[in-house]
Amino acid sequence: MLAAPLSPDWLRERRYALLVGVILSVLYLWLLAFRGYMEIGLQVYDDKGTYFKVYWAGADEAYSESRSKRVRLRGGTYNLNLFIGNMGSIDKLRIDPIEYEGEATIHHISLSQGGFQPISLQPLEMDALNPLSQIESLDLRDDGLHIVTSGRDGNLEWRFSPQGSGKFPWVHPFNVLLILASCLLLGRSTTLLVEKHNYVVAGLLVASVLAGVMATVSTIHTHPDERVHLAAVKYYSEHWLPPSLDSPEIAHSFSDYGKSRLSTYEMYYPMAGYFTRLLAPFKSSDLVNARAFSVLQIFGLLLMVCLRSRFRYFALPLILSPQVWYLYSYPNSDAFALTLSLIAAYQLAVPDSALNRFLSEVRPKRFLLGLILFGFLAGSLLLAKQNFWFVLLFFFLYVLWRIRQGYYPDIARVWIRIAMLACIAVVMYGARIGLDYAANGPDPKAKFEQYLEQTALEQYKPSTPLEDKHIFLYLKQRGNELDVVLQPLGWGSITFGTAFGAYGYTQYFGSDGYFTAVRWLATLLLLTIVLSALIRGPRETHTLILLAAFCATLLIGASIWSSWVENFQPQGRYLAPILPMLSIVYFHLRQYMPHRLVAALAISLFALGFYSFVFIGLVQIAKTSFYTAAG
Q1: Which tens digits make up the pLDDT trace of 98-126?
Q2: What contacts 602, CB < 8 A, 6 or more positions away?
């Protein structure tokens, strides 16, 4: 009886649950068990944004960014809780209370870890903190150490000698056993979730509800560029055609950069504006109507995964990051382009989809309707945000790949019908340019630059000397090499953070521990998919992976280049076009995947995303009443 649970068959049936249990146990031991736990009471007096940072090192080691933690703060009193390195290898801490010239008070500090005696500094013991640099004055008071910094890098040092407690922390092996047992139980109970990718339906249902809640409770203009997105949508709720850029009624639509979304060719703004006309009888505000269009899109995708089981392969990337759900909670063109791209990916990849029947059948049913609908879809993607043009490139290469693999019996017929769809898309794009010329004359670019000069803040005006422009503009012209964008500015870390959970104007985001867990799980999921395909999949799937990697690399390169030569503004949403590429790759590789392992990793990422969206996004975002929000 005791040997039965360890039999080869028993282990084989539960191998993925055990693997996930081992991974979670290692993460637990690495991120929590063998880490010091630091509690610090801190008061910040200035209300501008800043970071609290702590570095740790051994007695003879230099401080390093790789051994540090930071927390974003504003004015107020905080009780910060941080996991730092193993206390057995730490003899000193460097504390950077604020990153500007100002004042702060440290009330208390304590360090603890299983197997070590706790260490603490109470208010009247704070003289153990010694100034290192950019500290103007220290004043020991009854409530703690009052600090005045003389620059943006003021810091203090605390030296100590950790002592072992002589007690073994039995709680850690017990927790490891609990994690393994929980994964085994969950493995037995998730058969229905794994079957037909039902977990995607459940995850997208929760994500849709959360997006609706965020749209309901968050106050106006608390999301990135929502003011200018809303202004463009509102214009098309009252007009059918594009405006003249010098029209007084769109003056409020210009951002601090001197740009208006009404000067773009994107299809989202007229579509969202026309949709809000349908809500006019409900007498709801412009804000509610515009957000409703975004929320409706994710619920539309949810309906598709319920009605079309194969669409779940394409919707799987949607549940992996809360940043995607956040896009669907407020007016923006990224969510609209992502929705269209996923629908197009499904239509291109599924063999018996309406699009593939249109392309391959001699006399497809409702030919004219298909021509109009799919031509409109292609034209809308052409009129999407320019980063989604990389999706169009991938779609084109993917069609070539399908033709080479023999998916279409009559290649000539396929090319003729693709040409017909391309003609409709080009006509749509040309018509949009023509409408712009009709509204703004033969040289709309000149008018745009004129209003850019008039409406932009001083640091963004074209006429402002380079040295007086914002410091993140035109880094290349300022003599910076490309590697400055990557380090020290940290394009990669910022892009990753804003791809997996940054809310508001990216000022609300999770802890370093959250992003570390996400990074490991996302890497494991990607490696699982790629290695499974390379080991078990045929050679043609390897080519498909290379095509997706090529287009994704071009997109990433374009984003880095833009941050270098124009405006350093790394945003994870700029890389959203990678998701429909991944969905097509996963659809073709599905039969070679270890679905239980993929499901376990995807559900783990979803659980972390749920935590981030609820306990970081919804908790910290500014809130208002849904029905009283002003448009």
Answers
A1: 999 999 999 999 999 988 999 999 999 99
A2: 199, 200, 203, 316, 319, 320, 525
Which uninterrupted H or E stretch holds 314? helix 311-315
Alpha carbon 332 to its chain's center: 14
What global pTM score does this model have?
Answer: 0.80
What is the DSSP-derived secondary structure letter of residue 33? Answer: I
Distances (CA, A) of 5 to 10, 182, 347, 367: 6, 16, 46, 59
Contact 462, 414 (CB under 8 A): no
Contacting residues for 106 by C-beta, under 8 A, at least 6 apart = 40, 41, 42, 95, 97, 126, 129, 144, 145, 147
Q: What span, in angstroms and rounded, lies between the C-alpha atoms of 440 and 246?
A: 8
350 in helix, strand or coil? coil
Calpha distance 261→255 (Å, rounded):
9
Each residue's pLDDT tens digit, 381-422: 999 999 999 999 999 999 999 999 999 989 999 999 999 999
Percent of the chain as helix, strand, coil, to the nearest 5: 60, 15, 30
Alpha helices in 383-511 (DSSP H): 389-404, 411-440, 444-455, 483-486, 491-499
